[in-house]
Amino acid sequence: MWMLLLLVAAVPVLAQRRDYKPIAVTWTHGLPVKPDSSNFVTASYVVASPGEKIYSRLGHATLRLECPSYKLDYCFTFETDVEPGDYLRFFAGQARGRIVAVPTGLFLAPYAREGRQVRQYELNLSLAEKRELWRMLDNDMVSDERRKFNFVTNNCTSISFSMVEDCLQGEHIDYVWPRVMSQDNGNGVRYLMRRSPWLSFISITLLGTESDKYWDNHSRVAPELVIDIEWHSRIVAPDGRWRPVLTGEQRELLPLRHRLSAPSKASPGVVAACLLLVVLLATVLEWKPGWRRPAQVTDAVLLAMQTAAGLLLLYMSTVASLFGTHWNWYIIPFNPVPLVVWLVCRRRRHYGRVYGFYTAVLVLFMLATPLSSQLDWQHQLVVAALAVRTASHAVAYRRRQVAPTSDRKKAIV
How many CB atoms lie within 10 A of CB 145? Predict the structure, then answer.
């Protein structure tokens, strides 16, 4: 029965891995194993190191369950599709994932090809709890339940944690959370995505005021934190007796053969700084006779970027459900309003006053950086570039206003 259920549920994932050759892997506990032995079923966390692809930058965590007597050895993994259209659904908050069972040798094959390290840590569960865990995972697969998927709140790690907790019989896990979990969401995301500056930059941009909140720790667990958490946590019985969550036994299923490439030197901070320098140069040239063209091109590019970013932020904050509906501070400097105002009011007499007002807004926004975890210097460099251009236009408008007055005074004299 187990084998039939596993084969039916695993068909889609097996199809995705048809180009891979299974890796030879041994049992955690060798044969023979008696039916009443605690090792009749073995349950373990399996943690893979981060990969080069954007969706694997945080690594992966799953559950491995083995029953040598019945030749069953599967990794129950929470996965979602990674086709181009699925990226769009992800950012729209519509991505869905589900638990699937993959033969362990086949599960390891993609990681072996990528040279990623995979380690296994055995769970210290009773035989009844391990059987219950297997039953729960089987039922979840057969029901084909689709869960909302995102990097932060509902992922491979949080699902694995929930399954282990739910299989306990009258017991609970007393977690010891690492220090990084005491940080707000924004700083937590920056830490977990420290190896991928652009992924961190984009995530913080979209996270909005959720950056200042503290989500439930179960929702914020990442693969790299799994073992640190479980190693120090313990399973507590109703009578107060306890045992460690992990048995202390660990295995290296795959060695690390490929280290992640160093982050690009063109980090968000570097790109933003270069943008600011280009804007400053164009602004200086603007005040020289015959050099207005660079500033005009710069204005067009900045306005297009500002409008595109604003439309995306408005969509992510009001329509998409990736992180829920929330306010995003970056809507203040990045929104389509400046384009609308320019199209409608640019030929009006006092339109130039808008530049002075918007410059003040941008300066106040930069001064507010310490007030929110979402705001950081990389983003504020881009805001500074906008402020430089609006300030330049405000000064030019002021000069045009003063010039006629001076001319009239000369005429009177």
Answer: 12
The rounded distance, in Å, linking the Cα atoms of 230 and 173 is 9
Q: What is the pLDDT of residues 90-112, one digit of tens each?
A: 666 666 778 889 999 999 999 99
Residue with tokens 């017991």: 171
pLDDT per position as a tens digit, 119-167: 999 999 999 999 999 999 998 888 766 666 665 567 788 889 989 999 9
Q: Structure pTM?
A: 0.82
- CA dist., res. 314 & res. 331, Å (int): 7
Q: Residues 6 or more apart from 206 whose CB is under 8 A from it? A: 91, 313, 316, 322, 323, 328
Query: What DSSP string runs through 87-99?
Result: HHHHHTT--EEEE
Q: List, in order, residues 6 or more apart from 71 with CB less than 8 Å away.
A: none
CA distance 37 to 23: 28
> Which value, in Å, is the radius of gyration of the alpha carbons in the chain?
28
Between 337-345 and 293-318, two packed helices, what is the crossing angle to 10 degrees?
130
- Give the separation between CA 233 and CA 177, rounded to whole angstroms: 8
The CA–CA distances, whole Å, from 316 to 88, 113, 200, 209, 321 equal 12, 36, 16, 12, 7
| The two three-digit tokens of residue 411, written as one number | 């005429």
